[in-house]
Backbone:
């Protein structure tokens, strides 16, 4: 099978450059396009130079419509508004769209779901294979333990992250709720301030920390009288998200919408 041609959106950013390096380091895919927002100072530059790889002959553009017609997949870690647009364009082009964008609203997700009727769209709250294993374990442990075990989810990220709780924390919360046959919206506690009263049985609490250059740290705590169980994942290299996203795109090749 020929190399999978992959485009990267937000290509000049930290995650975009990591994705470019990851794709370039594999033999089964190639960097075939790079997209940045209109007005970016990176437009027209060779993405290989920005990613520290030397010239690749792939210039950064702000025209996804033309580019999507020439590639097999797009990797997208941008912002909700852009991701919704890219999903629609991927549907028109019938290509694989892998996105790790967080902070999407229900109306954004509805538009992406509509696009997914025509394109192979793959998403996760976190593209790390380790975090997805943690999610499966969280679901299993929550199902095995009764509500006498309080569930708390703690996450920490770098100071520049703009949404909270993180998409990963919410993914873990959904897994814990599913393990207990509950809807996260009904049991989620995102804020505690002032005189809150005692903790309600069955709630799933979230705590958010921000600081420094922390790539991502997530813990799911199951706390009961006399004992506590913790499941933790610590990311020390942004490359784990890029490797997971590229594997997702390759897995999606040839799959139905």
Residues:
């Amino acid at each position: 099978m020929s190399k999978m041609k992959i485009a990267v959106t937000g290509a000049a950013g930290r995650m975009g450059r990591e994705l470019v390096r990851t794709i370039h380091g594999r033999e089964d895919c190639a960097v075939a396009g790079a997209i940045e927002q209109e007005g970016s100072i990176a437009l027209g530059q060779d993405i290989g130079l920005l990613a520290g790889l030397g010239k690749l002959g792939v210039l950064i553009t702000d025209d996804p419509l033309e580019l999507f017609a020439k590639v097999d997949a797009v990797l997208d870690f941008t912002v909700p508004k852009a991701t919704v647009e890219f999903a629609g364009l991927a549907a028109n082009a019938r290509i694989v769209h892998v996105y790790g964008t967080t902070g999407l609203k229900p109306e954004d997700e509805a538009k992406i779901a509509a696009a997914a009727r025509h394109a192979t769209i793959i998403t996760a709250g976190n593209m790390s294979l380790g975090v997805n294993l943690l999610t499966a374990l969280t679901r299993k442990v929550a199902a095995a333990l009764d509500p006498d075990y309080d569930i708390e989810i703690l996450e920490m990220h770098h100071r520049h992250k703009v949404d909270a709780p993180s998409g990963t924390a919410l993914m873990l919360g959904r897994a814990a709720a599913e393990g207990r046959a509950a809807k996260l919206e009904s049991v989620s506690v995102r804020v505690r301030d002032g005189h809150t009263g005692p903790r309600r049985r069955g709630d799933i609490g979230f705590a958010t920390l921000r600081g420094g250059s922390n790539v991502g740290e997530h813990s799911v705590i199951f706390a009961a009288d006399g004992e506590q169980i913790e499941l933790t994942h610590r990311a020390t290299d942004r490359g784990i998200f890029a490797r997971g996203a590229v594997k997702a795109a390759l897995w999606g090749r040839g799959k139905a919408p």
